[in-house]
Specification:
Strand content: 5-15%
Order of helices and strands: EEHEHEEHEEHHEHEHHHH
Number of helices: 10
Distance between the termini: 18 Å
């Protein structure tokens, strides 16, 4: 299954071997995001999330760079147009929320530059794997622009107030090693091993329980949102359903029989 990138602001969806890859492919612009790209992302995420052939979703950029942020050439038309500026911000927010709330795990695979809005895009994923040559920066202060409040919320949840303020106020780029040390990425891999290590992580996710992934994602999101992690009838019901469900039956049997589990995908 493939979606034409020309119809989606340079973004395309391709599903193969259980992996749904959303590729940003504006290589000449280092994959800078257009408003059409933001508008397309919720549809691409929904297509991947509902496709029975896909177990995990990967976000990545073509040509050796994850993304240069927003395409500033589009910003000229926003000046003096309040309605269009609001629509642009809403399109971005909707795209990030679609990524964050997808039922399936979403992984950001980051190579090269990851700047501005592309950092916000990456932190809306479940976790980030970066190559050792990756660089990160949040430069809106250089433009007089602003991160969305929802993006700042995710950023602070990932790296804390101090590091968030430093990256935003200075707009200075940081190397991949520092991004790992402050929690902006969760795994750092040498460029030569990047594809192999990414495949290894995706394989591990694909072998996991879809039920566990789906409900763990929902509860982890609630915790990140600052909600009190108290149990209620709904969350306890999920726990009970897991214990009584087919995934746990298979996982338990596989553990007792010392074999890999074979979860039924749903």
């Amino acid at each position: 299954m493939t979606h034409d990138p020309n119809e989606h602001g340079g973004a395309s969806l391709h599903i193969d071997a259980g992996v749904a890859t959303i590729l940003f492919n504006r290589v000449q612009m280092r994959n800078a995001m257009l408003q059409n790209t933001w508008r397309a992302l919720p549809h691409l995420i929904a297509a991947a999330d509902t496709d029975p052939l896909a177990d995990v979703i990967v976000l990545r950029g073509a040509g050796g760079h994850f993304g240069a942020g927003n395409d500033i050439s589009e910003f000229g038309v926003l000046r003096g147009n309040i309605a269009q500026s609001r629509a642009y911000g809403q399109d971005m927010a909707d795209a990030m929320m679609a990524i964050e709330t997808a039922n399936k795990p979403v992984i950001a695979a980051i190579e090269g530059n990851c700047f501005g809005a592309s950092v916000a895009l990456a932190i809306s994923a479940d976790f980030r794997i970066a190559a050792t040559d990756a660089r990160f920066a949040i430069p809106p202060a250089k433009l007089g622009a602003l991160y969305l409040r929802s993006d700042l919320h995710r950023l602070v949840a990932a790296i804390g107030q101090g590091h968030a303020r430093r990256l935003i106020f200075t707009a200075m780029p940081i190397a991949a090693a520092e991004a790992l040390s402050i929690g902006l990425v969760e795994q750092l891999v040498g460029s030569r091993e990047f594809e192999a290590e990414l495949d290894k992580a995706l394989h591990a996710i694909r072998n996991g329980s879809p039920y566990s992934m789906r409900h763990s994602k929902r509860m982890l999101r609630e915790i990140r949102g600052g909600n009190t992690p108290a149990e209620d009838d709904e969350s306890l019901g999920w726990f009970v359903d897991a214990m009584q469900g087919g995934d746990f039956a298979e996982g338990y049997a596989a553990f007792m029989e010392k074999r890999p589990p074979d979860f039924r995908k749903n």
